[in-house]
Amino acid sequence: MSGWRALGAAAAVAVVLVAGCTGGSGGGGGGGTATTRAASRSYLTGEPGTAGRVVAVKIDNVPAARPQTGLNGAAIVYAIEVEGGLSRLMAVYDGRHLPPAVGPVRSARQTDLQLLAQYDKPALAFSGAQSRLLPVLKKSTDLTAVTGTKDFFRNHDRPAPHNEYLHPAHAAAKGGTAKDIGLRFATAAPAGGTATTTTSARMPAARFSFTWNGSQYKVAMDGRMSPWTADNVIVQHVAVKESDFHSRTGPVPYSQTVGHGSAVILRNGRSYDATWDRPAASDGTAYTFDGRTLPLHPGRTWIVLEP
Q: DSSP letter string over 251-277?
């Protein structure tokens, strides 16, 4: 499986500011200038290249599922709380930069609906969902649900349920084109912040740490180093309530990504105490520091939704 892991593209060498936040449906920027910039830089990574179609994949993150496959090919990786205070990942890919396989794939949650509404109807690939949530996902106008297709397969070298994988190309073709979700990028680090080597984030039964190695952040989970890296890390503090869709074992956490709150943003070995703001589900998420938008380094971003 490790041969399938695809590395992300190299970081851009020029200062990049991609198009402004837009609400509602549709895939472009706001005005003519924004559209022109969007044609040459990715909304998701700030790297050179026109926008591709978007597929998000729910990925297992318990110890038996590690190491996963394909995370270094993602544009954005979200870490989300699930039952028992454990974590699950959602890897977001631009269809122009896909690894051959991704996984292990696991089930969707209500959090995914709100989180992905800021994209332009992306594909969401998952292995299943709670019986009442599944029809909601399939009928959603904010995403295209992809589950149970011939592109899912089992790796029999691993135990179930941690062995379902996805060839993502066909799923990505069902997603909307990448749009502005509020991220901004610049090669040069902004002024301010604090030199920081390692930062941690926690959920009730999960722990992440990110260590700067001089060029990227190395990702560790539950105290163990992984093969994964990030150019940026956002620890986004969110309110967590009980989902409307319970599992057989009890309540399910629902991380709310519409609203505002505090965040810690890591880039270039520096830590910034920032704020995040997303007024409505159709809006992108703005990250600010000292009253100004804080640009990320062009490349891959991990976003931990920390309760």
A: --EEEE-SEEEEEEEEETTEEEEEEEE
